[in-house]
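Figure S4 source data
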Amino acid sequence: MQRPLKWLLMLNKRLYKKSSFIIIMLFIPLCVFALGIAAKQQSGFVSIVLAKEDSADPISTELVNSFLSERSLIRFTLADSPAEAVTEVKNGDSDAAWIFPADMEAEIDKYASIGSNKNSFIKVIEREENVFLRLTREKLSASLFGYSAKVRYIDFARTNIPDIDLTDAELIDYFDNVSVSEELFTIGSIGDFDTEGQSTNYLAAPIRGILAILIMLCGMAATIFYMQDEKSGTFALVKSKNRIYVSAACVMIAVMNIAAVTLFALVISGVATAFLNELVCLLLYALCCTAFCLLLMQIFRNLRLFAATIPLFVIATGVFCPVFFDLRKTAVVGHLFPPTYYINATYSNSYKLYMLLYLTALIILLAIIQKITAKKRI
């Protein structure tokens, strides 16, 4: 028992003499730190400047403050005047301007009572028409609904129930105090973990996927180290049939080291779920990455050829795995790579089972290729 442990300790010690391994290890906290800083900055796919014709209008002020306090795909800024907002759009500093009129309450009353598009009261000025800006207008409409719904409700009640003996204040009080338990939509994450109340900035969201790619990259680098050692005769005394276990140990130790750093990075970044869940997912992922790298080593047995494929696999995982976007069309291809299972397994117990099945499939393929290559040697 002491001899295998001594081997493992020596293999682990050798890793820290590799500059490339140290660089990958240091890159993980640097990556998390950089994304954390970026997530705190103002950011967005669409930039919208807000302006009020009357700076003292309470409804306009409430709406503007609610938009400015959000951290989303839309970046909201505030202009001192409508003219300044229009200038920002003309100069290309903002994609659109939303200008709120003076006396919003009167404008909402007028719009809700008549209900015609000709009575629109929010000025929207855009540089060009595109899908993103159309979606932002839906957000604006949703924000105004809460104000116009009450006016519309009172108008409907007065029109359709002429004998109603209630004041507007009493109708509004009834509107505010009636609770509807049914929800039109229930939104949540896939899996069994409660994410209610959590809010993750979209720049910080890919951290887990990026770290998953780095772990896989580390496994590939460790595989290259082993192939170099085998070529130089470091494991010449080990029997050919046992070298697969040595290669597995070399790759596994490297991946485990990076997985430990990754766990720490996830915790300090605030992205981590329950600690036990993270630990289980990383252990399963480490095994999957080890088996995946060993399988690639058996397929691309030439050291230079294997090294040349690494950038291709890194790009493929970034494109096909749900690191930045979860595209249904590429889901089949994405499931060929370990990061897809790890990213989903964190929030889904079903994917933990899929990871085990994926690991089993990799081991079976590895055993088959091992037998085929062994027969060829004979």
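Figure S5 source data
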Amino acid sequence: MELGNVKQVKFPAIAGWISILSGLFMLLLFNINMLTNYSMVILDYFIIFIGTGFIFAWPAIFSKNVRFLGLWGLGISVFLLLFIFVITFLGWIINPFP
């Protein structure tokens, strides 16, 4: 009976950790982009890692035991989307035609 519970919790936990790791890796790429001003680093991998974070967060959110992993992964992904759009909008306000 306990073996069934272990198998049931395994996939949502792995999905939650993948979501968190993809968000943290995207934060790393974004910091590299901000420090080096090399914009192609983040544009190549942005959709892949944010999409991975969103997709793998949902199985973890719907699992009762590892819900915090899914919320962390989803929170990092939403933060990155919001931060990048806000920074882009503020940069466009300051200098709309470079």
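The radius of gyration is 17 Å. The first helix runs from residue 2 to 36.
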